[in-house]
């Protein structure tokens, strides 16, 4: 991959046109630096650059309540690797600067409010690198597939989501949305692996198979999400996720490219440096 | 260091007797596996074991609201390395399982409540590995040194803290409290480094020098903390912290020893494994 000429963000960017997710190869590895081993070798330099950019982001947030923030939204079916991305990509940088939130089925209290209520509460503070494992998109995915609300309710939500994300962008958020795309066969293998290993039982839930049986309904729902909520300021990326090494590298790389584009400089001193050096020499 | 015969936790355990922190060598490296290079080589195997133990802790928390939790309290003067420990020790494991909270000067809202109110709100959930950068101990440290409350108020807090921590232990918390102990000379060098490097200006605050000028008052306040709030179930460890590599290794090692002692097994399946294998084969 030519270092700066081709941005992976452009390659994996979800097109702004009706999308058919079924037509996209889940096993592809576009622009990977090489095979698995070669790609894994790229994690160390990627970690180094990401760490510095994250620290700059964080530093700027310390002194400025209007500092920028980054929000990465991870979506995908069970076993697509949302948790793996958190561990292997967000685990590359200082945990102090990470704001991780995992969305489960809404609680009774959450259901008493509009669907964005719990999302607003979970947003990262200025300077933070936020990551959502699932998100407000569940309210047009599982809510639609399982008819948890009436059709006219979930249909209105696409616009509400678009307005919400525009509001976030206006308030200094950089939003990156990643759909981790796996094949039904890959899911089957990963579920088998969970049932074959007592150290992985906790990751398995019998309801995963019920969800699996609605695969094509979910693909329809994702097609609408990707087609209807995909502005340039809050873009979707479609990450082929059958290969874990590629999935992790690709999300890391898109995050890196996004953070590079933010031109994050170190915040200036808000004190007189020479005067403080003087004071310190006598302290 | 003999692998299992000698526990670093025993070596760095703060004695249960009146403590004089000034008598403890900040540059020591007790039981280090070797010099800096040799010690840093121990981080990879330590990370591997810590990661697995943290995942077990997390897995148990998923299915059981009474699962154990770990809370690491980091205290120390400016530049002692609280942030460095978060990055280099807690950065070794899955960010998904880390609950990090940094305590700043209390807000107006926080001041309207008792001093533990904000601490209770920041406690880790079951299964989480929590880390506090500063803590309720600030309420008997800065609050005392700067006379933010009357003497009789802060004097009552030692007992309140002891009762609070006992309550946490009874509710399934494993508490580890680390005092990162540096010399005045080390602090001076680290502050100089912050003033010499624009990438570190953000870590510097002119008020750091005011705090520095009260060094011996802080040592007195720490001596009381270490002497009065040090039960076996919520122990203090005194970490010589002039060497960053030693400080990080020591905190990681104590965390590892503590988590080993918890005998964390993988949670059993809460479903019929064979039945699910059968279902999956047909799904």
Automatic annotation (TrEMBL), chains A, B:
<dbReference type="GO" id="GO:0006797">
    <property type="term" value="P:polyphosphate metabolic process"/>
</dbReference>
<dbReference type="GO" id="GO:0008976">
    <property type="term" value="F:polyphosphate kinase activity"/>
</dbReference>
<dbReference type="Pfam" id="PF03976">
    <property type="entry name" value="PPK2"/>
</dbReference>
<keyword id="KW-0418">Kinase</keyword>
<dbReference type="InterPro" id="IPR022488">
    <property type="entry name" value="PPK2-related"/>
</dbReference>
<dbReference type="InterPro" id="IPR016898">
    <property type="entry name" value="Polyphosphate_phosphotransfera"/>
</dbReference>
<keyword id="KW-0808">Transferase</keyword>
<dbReference type="InterPro" id="IPR022300">
    <property type="entry name" value="PPK2-rel_1"/>
</dbReference>
<feature type="domain" description="Polyphosphate kinase-2-related">
    <location>
        <begin position="36"/>
        <end position="263"/>
    </location>
</feature>
<protein>
    <submittedName>
        <fullName>Polyphosphate kinase 2 family protein</fullName>
    </submittedName>
</protein>
<dbReference type="InterPro" id="IPR027417">
    <property type="entry name" value="P-loop_NTPase"/>
</dbReference>
């Amino acid at each position: 991959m030519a270092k700066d000429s081709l941005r992976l963000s452009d390659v994996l960017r979800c097109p702004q046109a009706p999308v058919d997710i079924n037509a996209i190869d889940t096993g592809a590895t576009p622009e990977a630096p090489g095979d698995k081993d070669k790609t894994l070798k790229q994690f160390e330099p990627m970690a180094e650059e990401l760490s510095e950019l994250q620290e700059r982001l964080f530093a700027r947030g310390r002194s400025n309540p209007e500092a920028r923030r980054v929000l990465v939204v991870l979506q995908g079916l069970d076993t697509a690797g949302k948790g793996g991305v958190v561990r292997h990509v967000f685990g590359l940088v200082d945990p102090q600067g990470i704001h991780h939130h995992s969305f489960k089925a809404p609680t009774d209290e959450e259901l008493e409010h509009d669907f964005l209520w719990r999302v607003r509460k979970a947003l990262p503070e200025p300077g933070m690198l936020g990551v959502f494992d699932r998100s407000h998109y569940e309210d047009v995915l599982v809510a639609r597939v399982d008819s948890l609300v009436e059709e006219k309710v979930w249909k209105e939500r696409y616009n509400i989501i678009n307005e919400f994300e525009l509001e976030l962008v206006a308030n200094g958020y950089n939003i990156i949305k990643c759909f981790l795309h796996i094949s039904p066969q890959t899911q089957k293998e990963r579920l088998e692996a969970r049932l074959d290993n007592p150290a992985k039982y906790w990751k398995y839930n019998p309801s995963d198979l019920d969800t699996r049986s609605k695969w094509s309904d979910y693909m329809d729902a994702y097609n609408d999400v990707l087609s209807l909520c995909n502005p340039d300021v809050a873009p979707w990326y479609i990450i082929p996720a059958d290969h874990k090494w590629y999935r992790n590298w690709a999300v890391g790389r898109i995050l890196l490219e996004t953070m590079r584009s933010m031109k994050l400089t170190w915040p200036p001193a808000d004190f007189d440096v020479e005067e403080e050096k003087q004071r310190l020499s006598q302290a």
